[in-house]
Amino acid sequence: MLAPGFADPVHDAQDTFRAVMDALARPGRPRPLRAGLEPPAPLTPELAAVALALTDADTPVWLDAGLAAAPEVAVYLRFHTGAPLTDDPAVAAFALIGDPARCPPLGTFACGTPAYPDTATTLVLALATITEGAGLCLAGPGIRGTARVALAPLPEGFVAQCAENRADFPLGVDLILTAPGRVVGLPRSTAVTEN
Amino acid sequence: MSETAMPASFPSPLRGGVRGGGGADGTVALDPALPPPPAPPRKGEERGDTGSGYNFAYLDEGTKRMIRRAILKAIAVPGYQVPFASREMPMPYGWGTGGVQVTAAILGRADVLKVIDQGADDTTNAVSIRRFFAKTSGVATTTRTAEATIIQTRHRIPETPLSEGQTLVYQVPIPEPLRFLEPRETETRQLHALAEYGAMQVKLYEDISRHGHIATTYAYPVEVAGRYVMDPSPTPKFDNPKMDDCPALQLFGAGRERRIYAVPPYTRVRSLDFEDHPFRVQEFTYPCALCGAEGVYLDEVLLDDAGRRMFVCSDTDHCEGRRADGHVGTGDAA
Amino acid sequence: MYVAVKGGEAAIDNAHRLLAEARRGDPAVPELSVAQIRAQMALLVDRVMTEGSLYDPDLAALALKQARGDVVEAVFLVRAYRTTLPRFGASVPVDTGVMAVERRVSATFKDLPGGQVLGPTFDYTHRLIDFALAAEGEVQAAAEAEPRDDAGHCPRVTDLLARDGLIEAAPPDDGTPPGDLTREPVDYPADRALRLQALARGDEGFVLGLAYSTQRGYGRTHPFVGEIRVGEVAVDFVPEELGFPVPLGRVRLTECQMVNQFKGSGAAPPQFTRGYGLAFGQSERKAMAMALVDRALRAEELGEPVASPAQDQEFVLAHCDSLQATGFVEHLKLPHYVDFQAELELVRRLRAEFERKSEPVEMQEAAE
User: Fold this and answer.
1) Does A1 fall in a domain?
2) B96, B253, B288, B329: which one is catalytic?
């Protein structure tokens, strides 16, 4: 039995998008994300919500090893979004990552081109916790002064990877980080430091 | 991570321009055992949500997704113009189709919408667009700047300072700030890629040598977050300082030219200028004749054919609010 | 005394009521039916379908009625409706080689397989106002001729030329799905399929003017009408779940194949080149103009200098759409007082400074 998608496709998609939009517009400030989905594990409700809201037949989607290993996840996403799945991270419009600790280096995804920096992958990660006011220090567009957010778990050498990702601005990937019930944005324009 | 193997040209599966059915060549790794993708529109997305015969906020869900993806990239790269597959809207190109599409893509049931044209809620095109959304989405509308969560605007930024809960959506006729220096899209795209903005500086400086002033009074170019030069839409340069470090999210939609761009909140927006000719905004000699406001943008109204005129607030909500609070102007001709 | 500019809502409502009244006109005159427009303004309906990118004669006729006969406005109505339609995919390419030909003329060969078929045409009519039409006279039925032996077999002139290698080969179908400028923003340089789509949707007057300019030396292409054919073709579609083509119906098309001179190069022997035009219904002027501009836009591909407007794809594609053009031209009637005020203030200031500078020196000194 295939798990259902959004109960109210129009408004649930809008709610999810607005949470993601606000999150990317105000990096480091978590937004509530409640989509009421019960997707097959290890796909989390938040990853599923972002996928259903933003992907379709026009957006190749890359799944990390854990998600790709569960065929029900692909069936669920294919059925509800129609998005083609790709195993090449460099051509993915969206990448869903259920196991952030083992996320491939950000540089393996598409970072756009100088003429079209928008043709870069958006990574959506499922974290365990997102806590505002402590942890990493963020600065850049969307942030008044600096912001602090604690994220766990994170990929190996995350801060260094973010610095590298930002070094070639406007090229770079954009991150949507989710945890149960919340989402935080980390666009390529954000400078991330340890303190 | 400079130039990647990705081709610089359209169509890019990474942009997800709406191409109906299937991904781009070489990107589809379909398992034949999977169910076939649903035919568009996706399930449960058929029209008929508002009783208007059209989907909520008019656009179909596929179009909204495409625009939403463009908005997210626009926010991630402040000031960069993201190409998008602008739709033919039931109103003419040049009349706000870009702003309308952006508003339709972000609008939700809980939003309160304000629409202004030339600063006023009651100008005909503002009325027309406000009605369009009232009819197709049923959301609450307002003329009060402070009550609105989304403000769609043509040519002005409200006088009342915007707040964090708000999004300002600009209607943009010509999004390319370099267009009148270089009409070719192929050229301007390269200039942005290289951050080569010397021609713009030269143009502004030529004004100074000819007129003693920078002769650009509206659509005055700005530099966003230290990188992209951006057209702020034909707002008077008086409004440029309001864009800088603004608590609200600013989104820009150009329908005919098919571009979306953004300025995130609290982002540095610098009006281009020179050390010996710093940026300056217009100053009005008189206060508003109706509410007495100073330091606001004024409309000039002709009173007769003998040259009598008066100056009144361009922002009608601001003016009405002040008058309701007891502020009174001289009511006289200037 | 100043009156706040209020009452926009009421003004709009009243204007719309007036429009409805003006549309109907004198109520003593019988109302036009959509069927009448479709049947008797057929070429106008065809133009609206072509530029509206939607094959639906009834809808185009209704749009014309609603638009009071304003073609661009009718195209607008059709396009705005089209945008809301779900999209199921692209049809199998239609085969105009097996078109049920109603009209087929070639300017390059006196006779050819299938013959010259004049069909319903204004060509060779004397353009004298027919006052009998005002009297609503009955039309005599056209006489039926015996069909030629080879009627029904009308190979395309370009196929006949291609057999001997006299004309460049038709570009092979490499399976790349054609782009769609209604669903992706155009990126330059645009490929030929996308250019043809833009020209097909383009304003007939604009495309015609550009085509004419190529004949007057602004990007000459030395054209000959290889063939114009008008008639119905079948449209097939392959649903993903079936995997084989199913017929959707038939559409009436006008196709123009221009045969253009080309000198050849060191690498290629001299041969003719092609310009292509295709439009819904009977739209010969449009199809011909489109074919001329298509060929002109191939200048770069064929190693010709790009020096004229019709050869410049950014110029042509960015300006040929009547809706984009009319929207932006007509938007100038929207209020611009905010921008104008900004300019007024500047001009006043510059004039004041100018006058100050032009004052005689002694007066300036006296003032100081």
Assistant:
1) no
2) B288
Residues in B closer than 8 angstroms to A162, CB to CB, are: none
How far is A137 from A133, CA to CA, in rounded Å? 9
Q: What pLDDT sits at residue C173?
A: 83
Q: What is the mean pLDDT of residues C261-270?
A: 76
- How many residues does the structure list for chain B? 334
Pairing of strands A94-97, A122-126: parallel
Q: Compute CA distances A191 → A118, A195, B229, C253, whole Å.
A: 19, 11, 21, 58
Does position C209 have pLDDT exceeding 90, yes or no?
A: yes
Residue A174 lies in a domain: yes
CATH number at residue A158: 3.40.50.11310
Catalytic residue list contains B291:
yes
Two structure tokens written together for C341: 């005020």
- Quote the DSSP letter at residue C235: E
Mean pLDDT rounded to a whole number for chain B = 86
pLDDT for res C367: 47
Neighbours of chain B (3+ CB pairs under 8 A): A, C
Q: Flag whether A103 is in a domain.
A: yes
Containing H/E element for C199? helix C192-201
Of B261, B258, B224, whose CA–CA distance to B240 is shortest? B224
Q: Per-residue pLDDT averaged across B96-116, rounded?
A: 97
Q: Hunting for tokens 């006088």 — which residue is that?
A: B159
Domain-embedded: residue A4: no
Radius of gyration of chain A (CA): 16
Averaged pLDDT for residues C12-39: 94
Mean pLDDT of B177-205: 93
Confidence of residue C137 (pLDDT cuts 50, 70, 90): low
Whether the Cβ atoms of residue C207 and residue C293 lie closer than 8 Å to each other: yes
Residue B51's pLDDT is 56
Contacts of C329 in chain B (CB under 8 A): 94
Do C87 and B40 make contact, defined as CB atoms within 8 angstroms? yes
* pLDDT number for residue B289: 95
Domain hosting residue A61, numbered range:
9-193
Q: Give the best residue of C19, C84, C188, C203 to mutate against chain B (max B CB count within 10 A).
A: C84
Bridge partners of A137, per DSSP, are A148, A193
Among this protein's residues, is B246 annotated catalytic?
Answer: no
Task: Kindly list the residues from chain B whose CB atom is less than 8 angstroms away from the CB atom of residue C240.
Answer: 21, 36-37, 39
User: How many structural domains compose chain A?
Assistant: 1
In which region does residue C56 sit, left (phi positive, over 0), alpha (psi from -120 to 50) or beta (all else)? beta
Taking the CA atoms of residue C189, residue B253, residue B66 and residue B59 in that order, the dihedral angle to the nearest 10 degrees is -120
| Record: contact C188-B186, CB cut-off 8 A | yes
- CB–CB of B3 and A113 under 8 A? yes
A 10 A CB-CB count for A26 gives 24
C243 touches chain B (CB under 8 A): no
Is the pLDDT at B330 greater than 50? The verdict is: yes
Helices C42-52 and C204-215 meet at what angle, rounded to 10?
90
Distance from CA of B36 to the nearest CA of C (A): 8
C362, C364, C368, C225: which is closest to C289 by C-alpha? Answer: C225
Interval C151-180: pLDDT, tens: 678 888 898 888 888 998 888 888 888 889
What residues of B are in contact with residue A164 (Cβ under 8 Å)? Answer: 1
Q: What pLDDT is stored for residue C69 in this prediction?
A: 96
Q: List chain C domain ranges.
A: 9-82, 96-120+149-170+181-326
